[in-house]
Amino acid sequence: xxxxxxxxxxxxxxxxxxxxxxxxxxxxxxxxxxxxxxxxxxxxxxxxxxxxxxxxxxxxxxxxxxxxxxxxxxxxxxxxxxxxxxxxxxxxxxxxxxxxxxxxxxxxxxxxxxxxxxxxxxxxxxxxxxxxxxxxxxxxxxxxxxxxxxxxxxxxxxxxxxxxxxxxxxxxxxxxxxxxxxxxxxxxxxxxxxxxxxxxxxxxxxxxxxxxxxxxxxxxxxxxxxxxxxxxxxxxxxxxxxxxxxxxxxxxxxxxxxxxxxxxxxxxxxxxxxxxxxxxxxxxxxxxxxxxxxxxxxxxxxxxxxxxxxxxxxxxxxxxxxxxxxxxxxxxxxxxxxxxxxxxxxxxxxxxxxxxxxxxxxxxxxxxxxxxxxxxxxxxxxxxxxxxxxxxxxxxxxxxxxxxxxxxxxxxxxxxxxxxxxxxxxxxxxxxxxxxxxxxxxxxxxxxxxxxxxxxxxxxxxxxxxxxxxxxxxxxxxxxxxxxxxxxxxxxxxxxxxxxxxxxxxxxxxxxxxxxxxxxxxxxxxxxxxxxxxxxxxxxxxxxxxxxxxxxxxxxxxxxxxxxxxxxxxxxxxxxxxxxxxxxxxxxxxxxxxxxxxxxxxxxxxxxxxxxxxxxxxxxxxxxxxxxxxx
Length: 631
Ligand code: M6R
Prior knowledge:
Bound molecules: 5-amino-5-deoxy-1-O-phosphono-D-mannitol
CATH topology of the largest domain: Glutamine Phosphoribosylpyrophosphate, subunit 1, domain 1
Distance between the termini: 11 Å
CATH superfamily of the largest domain: Aminohydrolase, N-terminal nucleophile (Ntn) domain
Helix content: 25-40%
Number of helices: 18
Radius of gyration: 26 Å
Number of domains: 3
Shape: globular
Strand order of the largest sheet: 3-2-4-1-10-9-11-15
CATH class of the largest domain: Alpha Beta
Number of strands: 25
Structural class: alpha/beta
């Protein structure tokens, strides 16, 4: 959470920082600020609320400073008010700091500083940093000769060693106007290299319109950016030799391209995402070898003697993991547990032998998921071989912290997702699970060659099936949104492999429309939640053909008998389905196992249109952030 950006070079920093922050707003958007060094002074401007508030404040200023730092905030410590917005400064207003993360020992540090006469003006943990930097600069100056060009850097390095927690910082000081120091510890930070200009940012979209040459810092590293270049050191002060690499992201990937919202654009990108996954994970169509999947590139030792799989994830990724469990158990016959990462951390299942642990996180930065994987690795260290950790990640950001943490990654290839509500990355996670489950099934020969071939062939038709229904589903869901924009409660029902899709439909609606929604296994309604139903509570039921179709229709009848308006997501438009559903959103008829790839799309569209109709900020819903890097 929170996005930080920094610039040093030859151009006016302000616009570069503001446009960088626009690309990072998905990380938090309750307040924003920038600090530059102008005419020997720090110029710090902050504003509560969205970035346009900051922009309108800044537009009234004349300032062509070529160095600055910026921040967009998701509040952790202290309310989302201007006085808590970053950058934070020391008492003399000479040092400015932006931070993404949490300083766990800030209370002790604050007390120590207070005892030394420091006064604080915010409720944040971050504010201790500029105070400490200023303090150490004073101490360094007393020690070193006044011309030492290392004082500012050394002061920030000392501070980095004092801090506990997960943080990424950018720091500038009015007394050292040609230096910007960037620090990384357990929170992402990337350095960008332009022509005589250098950048740092929490994520690459903030800088990709200026440069594609980047260097992600590692934990415990800090970079000194000057107009002449970038030097990277570890926290002990030892210079590090690093390799710059080129981004594949292009500036147009982070534009709306004619869509009203990123979320809608991303929903429409799903056929392309499925195609990209098919191309990457499976051998080419027509190639006989294609029958045996799969070029996941995972090491043999990961599979050897596998007895059990456990998956840790949060939010939408957790829903994808539930579909994954279904696929792995049904296709590869391996017992699979799915845990909320935030729960698993503190109450892990007893250790089992020959267990693969998979972390699913689109951002690769979710603190709970990373911590759960870290805990799993630690508790298995030093154990006999069959108990040793086998870790794997499924992520859309292989360069993320997750990518550094686990030895095996399935890259979900969805391209950058800007809308805070996950859509195309969910579909891509499902594709990763299809590939993994089929790979396991092929290796263990738990399904026949014919069945394997049939599923892979059917998967190849999915992009066309999504394309062919998108337009009609969009019209229908837009129409339904008109009726339901003022509804207060929704129920989503599914069974079997579509139960997680009901959960996902409810989550999408909750997070962007602020309407209360529950996802339920259709057969469980009669055990309690049916008491909620009346004419004011619509029910969305996923009724695809297959093992549970009749059961879902019966459960829908039970809801209808309680006066609920029934919306069916179904390929069937006749018989009992036509009787029970008041409204029908058609999906193509496919193998039940593949149906989640189709049924999730109308869920996303329904949530989207209801939120848009209510006039809400679809891409940046209140209280949320795209990657949740705090516990
Ligand atoms: O980056 P991750 O997949 O680890 O994120 C997990 C959740 O925070 C995320 O899925 C969240 O629930 C989304 N807002 C869902 O749309």
